[in-house]
Design brief:
362 residues; alpha/beta; Rossmann fold; Arc Repressor Mutant, subunit A; 3 domains; 4-stranded parallel beta sheet; 16 strands
């Protein structure tokens, strides 16, 4: 597989399937920072889930809205543990079954049920619109929740005359170890990652909550320098509300999300000719004449500043402000020396006596 993402650093906020997503990105050459924003807590013994299951047995649903594969499987496994598999199968087999996603459809069929409709967009909003148009007045609608409650969709169905049973199969909880998430927030705020991926809306909300008083700094980075990749439109909603531009694939799949990032990130690179070399800047590396040269944050920051205005002379004082941990002008000299050594092309960065440094542009 080609290294389309070589030189880029990408944050992964997923919990479930984080290893799969990280591996897909790493196989394309990316450096990956894994920092789950949330974790899924299964509820096979939860009283609310058992209460919702009993409600379905007492008032058999006319409509079942199956949202996720993992959620449906978790519900059915819990029912098996309570000895309610056959009664539940019996009542659900009489319902009009809507499967929001292919994985939900697979779980429904594995349970011996037949699904009647699925949305092209895989969105809850399209499912609710379909049910309202079809007519739910006087009917019981069971919604298998995926994570948090969905009050807007429940309210829309109730306003259309339905009685809604919410089936809470799992809930979100903070990560056991929050350190990786806070490290990722530091990297985003410092523009030291090139992209961040999200596979659920609650994860996006959790990252912003964890940012605390740096939330606006993080949002500014996400609105500009850091690409945001979301697996689907629902996942993107919390970020879109904050004015963050989001890239989403046409199909809500991890592979499609990775392809979207592969398409988007290289378009953000800056290329310049200097001292007879073709220089392309990536996240934590430069590609010089086709060769990838990884660089530390300080020399990379100097290179970005110089490449932003090729040929312009930057004083040491100006470059000092660009460094991640600037201390004095000596730090700039060290960063320039490391940059020249890292590029293995010392003539690319020219010293202008008593003025500073510039790229020796062609």
């Amino acid at each position: 597989m080609r290294d389309e993402l070589a030189g880029f650093t990408i944050g992964v906020t997923a919990d479930r399937r984080r290893d799969e997503l990280a591996a897909l990105l790493q196989r394309r050459g990316a450096r990956v920072v894994v920092a789950p924003a949330l974790r899924i807590v299964p509820l096979p013994d939860d009283a609310d889930l058992r209460k919702a299951t009993r409600a379905c047995l007492d008032r058999p649903p006319d409509v079942l809205m199956a949202n996720t594969g993992i959620g449906m499987r978790g519900w059915l496994e819990a029912a098996e543990g309570w000895g309610l598999t056959e009664p539940l199968r019996g009542v659900l087999s009489q319902a009009y079954v809507v499967a929001r996603s292919p994985k939900a459809r697979g779980a429904v069929r594995a349970f011996g049920l037949r699904d009647q409709w699925s949305p092209d967009s895989e969105s809850c909003e399209e499912v609710v619109d379909h049910l309202v148009r079809r007519g739910v007045a006087g009917q019981v609608v069971a919604i298998q929740l995926h994570g948090d409650r969905q009050p807007a969709y429940t309210a829309a169905l109730e306003q259309a005359g339905a009685t809604v049973i919410e089936v809470p199969v799992y809930r979100w909880a903070p990560p056991i170890d929050p350190a990786p998430l806070h490290r990722l927030i530091d990297l985003v705020a410092g523009r030291l990652v090139d992209a961040v991926t999200f596979t659920s809306a609650p994860a996006a909300e959790a990252l912003l909550r964890a940012a605390g008083d740096r939330t606006e700094t993080v949002l500014e980075a996400l609105r500009g320098d850091v690409l945001v990749g979301c697996v689907g439109a629902i996942t993107a909603e919390p970020l879109v509300r904050h004015g963050v531009p989001v890239s989403t694939p046409h199909r809500a799949r991890l592979g499609a999300l990775v392809r979207t990032i592969v398409d988007e990130l290289p378009r953000r690179t800056v290329s310049v000719k200097a001292a007879g070399h073709l220089l392309t800047l990536r996240g934590h590396a430069a590609v010089i004449d086709g060769e990838l040269r990884p660089l530390a944050p300080a020399p990379m920051a100097v290179l970005r500043a110089l490449a932003a205005s090729p040929g312009r002379v930057f004083s040491r004082a100006v470059l000092l402000r660009m460094l991640p941990r600037g201390a004095d002008e000596h730090a700039v000299e060290m960063a320039v020396a490391r940059l020249r050594a890292g590029l293995k092309a010392p003539r690319v960065v020219q010293t202008v006596v008593r003025r500073g440094y510039r790229l020796r542009v062609d």
